[in-house]
Design brief:
- The protein is an alpha/beta fold and 429 residues long.
- Helices cover 22% and strands 27% of the residues.
- The strands form seven sheets. Strands 1, 4, 5, 6, 8, 9, 10, 11 and 12 form a nine-stranded mixed beta sheet that branches.
- Strand 9 and strand 10 form a beta hairpin.
- The N and C termini lie far apart (51 Å).
């Protein structure tokens, strides 16, 4: 795998994940209590012995830079690195990244300096565990110019994805972006070609792109330079190359979830609490997910009732009830609180006692979740100050709401409290 260069696409402004992306790049959004989204593809690369990794981004990249610099420091005797390439304006490219392909095109001059055979193109907002070595080996065995990682899906979900058809040798011969009706039916394929059993193939007669690709080095350069008006891999570059290049499909039959929307992100986080075994597990000795080592103290729980939940490091919980929730690092929950079906991201720091007393005098709202507060079906971003006797329950069953000036939004019925927001005592949302 020394001949492979990993390129992680950090995405655009992250509008689908707003307001979690208001103050951070999409790959820097916290995940599962202690990780960040970027940790998933980077860890998959490290576990696959791919140690040369670039992350391309252009929005709010300060926290992403800080996380990567503090987390992924390879030995000075190794070639490995994880480095952010932020969008920049030059004389040749006066505009920002216009899409996934354009982001790679603008840094092609740097990528070509590496003596590698393939580029592995990854997305920064998916939750999955994958051995890229098998992916690259399939690419080499078939002599492909481009190999796409695909997942088998059923008819119910098929119209939400970009679908493709393959021939009896696994070569991609047709594409269709989110088809419906007859156009959807025409995209059915025999997925036993990719290794599914007859029963599995019957349930999942469609294959969808995961947005993960392997390119031959020279093929990627040729496609990007020959088609400067094409700015997106999935919608333009790859479909347009199907006739002239050998495109192969690689079947990934494990857990994979696109968590690029608030609802999908919320569901994927809470699914981690499932018993006896969640669909995606962070408890894998063979392929661990890495993140920044913070050296936090153990969490302290005082007379708490906790069921089906994940509690991050360094939390302090007092006489509260937590059910089906994920609490991030340094979460502070005061007595009498009820938290259900929620994601609490925690805090970036502790406040000293004197600072807490000052907070109480100035804002009357300390860092964390105040006493006797109830939170249901919500996402509380980092460093939020939630007062006493607050009820975040979406009492009017609102599906969508813009209340940014008041410190929160509602997306798909999920209340999202902004980072650093202050919610006064007695507030009802």
């Amino acid at each position: 795998m020394k001949r492979v260069l990993g390129i992680i696409l950090g995405g655009g402004a992250g509008t689908r994940l707003y307001p979690l992306t208001k103050l951070r790049a999409k790959p820097a959004v916290p995940l599962a209590g202690k990780y960040r989204l970027i940790d998933i593809p980077v860890s998959n690369c490290i576990n696959s012995d791919i140690l040369k990794i670039y992350v391309l981004t252009q929005f709010n990249s300060a926290s992403l830079n800080r996380h990567i610099a503090r987390t992924y420091n390879f030995s000075g005797f190794a070639e490995g690195f994880v480095e952010v390439l932020a969008a920049q304006q030059t004389k040749e490219n006066p505009s920002w990244f216009q899409g996934t392909a354009d982001a790679v095109r603008q840094y092609l001059w740097m990528l070509q300096d590496w003596d590698v055979d393939e580029y592995l193109i990854l997305s920064g907002d998916h939750l999955y565990r994958m051995d890229y070595r098998l992916f690259v080996e399939r690419h080499r065995e078939t002599g492909a110019d481009i190999t796409l990682s695909v997942v088998p899906i059923d008819e119910k979900r098929a119209s939400s994805f970009g679908l493709m058809k393959i021939d009896d040798k696994g070569k991609v011969v047709d594409f269709s972006e989110k088809p419906t009706g007859d156009a959807l039916t025409k995209m059915q394929v025999d997925t036993t070609i990719l290794g599914l059993t007859a029963e599995q193939a019957k349930k999942n007669p469609y294959i969808a792109s995961m947005g993960i690709y392997v390119f031959k080095k020279e093929v990627l350069a040729k496609l990007l330079q020959a088609n400067p008006e094409q700015t997106d891999f999935g919608k333009e570059i790859i479909p347009a190359s199907a006739n002239d290049y050998n495109l192969q499909a690689y079947l990934f039959n494990g857990y994979w979830e696109d968590i690029g929307t608030i609802e999908a992100f919320y569901d994927a986080n809470l699914a981690l609490t499932q018993q006896p075994q969640p669909a995606f597990s962070f408890y894998d000795r063979e392929a661990p997910i890495y993140t920044r080592a913070r050296y936090l103290p153990p969490s302290k729980l005082l007379d708490c009732q906790i069921t089906r939940s994940i509690i991050g490091d360094g939390c302090i919980l007092k006489n509260c009830r937590i059910n089906h929730s994920v609490l991030g690092i340094r979460s502070r929950i005061e007595s009498g609180c009820i938290i259900e079906d929620s994601l609490i991201m925690g805090a970036d720091f502790y406040k000293r006692f004197a600072e807490e007393q000052s907070d109480l005098q100035v804002n009357n709202v300390p860092l964390g979740i105040g006493a006797d507060t109830t939170i249901r079906r919500a996402i509380i971003d980092k460093n939020a100050h939630i007062g006493r006797d607050v009820r975040i329950i979406n009492k009017d069953r609102v599906d969508e709401a813009e209340r940014e000036q008041q410190g929160f939004l509602i997306r798909n019925g999920i209340v999202v409290v902004l980072k650093n927001a202050v919610i006064p005592d007695g507030t009802v949302i």
